[in-house]
Amino acid sequence: MRILLCNKFYYRRGGDCIYTLELERLLRQHGHDVAIYAMQYPDNLPTPWQDYFPSEASFSIGPKMVKALLRPLGTSEVKEGFERLIQDFKPDVIHLGNIHSQLSPIIAETAHAKGIRIVWTLHDYKLLCPRYDCMQPNGLVCEECFSHQQATMTSRVNAPNPNACLKHHCIKGNLVASLIGWAEMKKWNRDRLTRITDTWICPSRFMLQKMVQGGFPNEKLIHLCNFIDVEKCLMDGYSQREDYYCYVGRLSHEKGIETLIDAASNLPYRLIIIGDGPLKKQLNEKIQQLSCQDRIQLAGQKNWEQIKPLVGHARMLVIPSEWYENNPLSILEAKCLGTPILGARIGGIPELINPISGAEFLDDVDGDLFIPRDVADLTRKINSLWTRPFDYDQIAKKSQQQFSAETYYGNLMNLYSPS
Predict the structure, then answer these.
(1) Which of 23, 183, 383, 410 is the most buried (most CB within 10 A)?
(2) CATH number at residue 220
(3) Which CA distances in Å does 350 have to 80, 121, 365, 391?
(4) Continuous segment of H or E residues that includes residue 273
């Protein structure tokens, strides 16, 4: 089968990019011909398909900014390069990832017009929310764009507010940026996208429910949990644990990292924070002010070879997110290393954890959940998990079966070639 993968970046930038690279590797292992379509970018991996890519567009001030302002609505440069690639590669299936803004759904529309099957993996909520994450600039969760409760004379009805992005200046707190996001959502609306897409893959049941809530047809949505390369998680044993716990991820407000530090400052245990982001300086100052630098370590960005032993020997991984997380790869990786998860009860996180209160058998417990933003509840749960015994080997074994690439591949083939 000839499969064309589309994602706006082609290097290990974030979860969507990692998914694309791992999917490319998986498909090639099974003998498929795979081509790539992305935007030209200095960090991209080399590929024979890069001559088809549209030029780089950037929202930073400069000559590339004009392209960035026009690109979300679909431009001839993107469409023409994509048409040339389709003509030369002749794909059987086009699998989309994160394509908005730098590529845009014009590529889906172009392929659909040629009768090519479109499968689209959703990594965020862009089809429902102009700023991707269902949050307002104040950090609060928001669903106004697709499911806003409004009062009528007789009752309350579910009536989306299509202008919410403009009202709240949702994108970067800026009216111009929000206007672009609003125009993008108006052009690539639900009905238009539904006509040109055969199947949307929702990595979490939560995302599938939100898509249905936003009016997308249930028959075109399928839940399929993400996969990882479980081979990279293999260890001689999983029971050796040391006296610290971990956070792995971006240092930004929506990730709840400030809530975690507030909780950790009340505890005697050592916390290792792995990652980088806009809050790095602020968090370092906070740790100094709380006088807990002896217990909380900002370890910075790490590669997998550095992350593996840190997470693999931790008592637990904490996911304190305050936004609608979809299907975090960090949870999949940690569980495949046998590490229990303490996650916020929000978005798709609860689907990936068998908590103490909900497990049918005690042997199935692989973590617990806490109330998002609740420092007291998070503190209690860290204390509880710290002293609780776990079958780390069993957590790893079950997770490696559940999240394996081969399990994913079989399900994906059914979507590529439906009976």
Answers:
(1) 23
(2) 3.40.50.2000
(3) 43, 20, 13, 20
(4) strand 270-274
Q: What residue numbers bound the domain in which 41 lies? A: 2-139+181-227+405-416
What pLDDT digit, counting tens, does each position of 217-270 carry?
Answer: 999 999 999 999 999 999 999 999 999 999 999 999 999 999 999 999 999 999
Q: How far apart are CA 370 and CA 344, in angstroms?
A: 5
- Cβ neighbours of residue 67 closer than 8 Å, sequence gap 6 or more: 55, 56, 57, 58, 75, 77
Tell me whether strands 199-202 and 221-223 are parallel, antiparallel or unpaired. Answer: parallel
CA distance 80 to 301: 38
- Is residue 91 included in any domain, yes or no? yes
The pLDDT tens digits for 290-300 are: 999 999 999 99
Residues 200 and 293 in one domain: no
The residue whose two tokens read 């509880």 is 384
Task: Kindly state the tokens that stand for 31.
Answer: 């003998």
Residue for token digits 């780390």?
392
Domain presence at residue 397: yes
Nearest alpha carbon to residue 255 among 297, 283, 286: 283
Q: What is the mean pLDDT of residues 342-346?
A: 98
Task: Give 399-419 pLDDT, tens digit per residue.
Answer: 999 999 999 999 999 999 876
**Mean pLDDT, to the nearest integer, of 61-90?**
88
Integer Cα distance of 286 and 289 in angstroms: 5
Res 174 pLDDT > 70: yes
| Same domain membership, residue 200 and residue 57 | yes
Which H helix or E strand runs over 133? Answer: none
Q: What is the mean pLDDT of the chain?
A: 92
| Domain match, 324 and 221 both | no
